[in-house]
Amino acid sequence: MVGACMYKNNLTRREFLSRSGKAAGFAVAAAGAGYLLHEAERHPFREIHEETVVRDLRITELKSEIVVGSGDDAASVTAAVITALGGMSAFIHPGDVVVVKPNIGWDRRPEQAANTNPDVVAEVVRHCVAAGAAKVIVTDITCNDPVRCFNRSGIAAAAREAGAEVLLPNEARLRDVNMGGVMLGRQPVFDTYLEVDKCINIPIAKHHGLTRVSLGLKNLYGIIGGNRGRLHQDIHNSIADLGNFLRATLTILDAWRILLRNGPQGGSLDDVEERHVIAASVDPVALDAWGGERFFGLSVADMPWLALSQRYGLGTTDHATLPLTEVYA
User: What is the pTM of this model?
Assistant: First the structure.
């Protein structure tokens, strides 16, 4: 199935997650070689939640706007965007536990533009630490082998150096919750997203074989386990359900390099284009609408999850109604 996240050699999602625990053990053993990744704490059982769960981590008093940054250095542009939004202290309060959610789904190098730019991730982590976060966690449930994805993407090393705790996916960390969505009912969710105070979503802008584009709301697929391929049967409602379940504090769109074709995994540098743009907003719907139009020439009608997400009250599909600030660094 196009776009379905399956572990290499055609393993099922459950088999992959089970093996990822073993892979984490391997990563710990490889610490001396610089490949150490944090082994997720194993939980003795899954907790079942019958009630509908919504993780609303937004700061509702903040105004909705879009800040767009460009320049020659990804970290500097990211810093300029955060500053233009009022600084990370507008989002992160002292003592907060923060999860930073990049796309780390694929065993690809940064220049292949399948995963979020590691320089952008590291800069976001640094700003969270400077704002007084008690802990900053960087994690994602990957599609390819997690050790290879976290290391080859450059995100593990960059995030750790910036002060983050890096968590590998681990089936023992999944908890079944009832999302109460149109498509998503009870679903296994990585427990980090059920426990943190704030979430910063950092997707990369790229082509996707089913949705035409993968942006902020689609990036939330990386918080859930199980057989994600079945969600593609109604992918637009699935995306909206995910956005409604995890209402991120802030979305920062990495368009430094964008994957124009053969997404979401890519592979060929011929499919990648340098754009040197970072954009951010507290409105994930507007940011997706803006990014789809700006980089892929798509209208709101071309991205049906936007109208579905707007009905959930997650934001506006009419990004032109929001103030837009451009910064250069």
Answer: 0.87
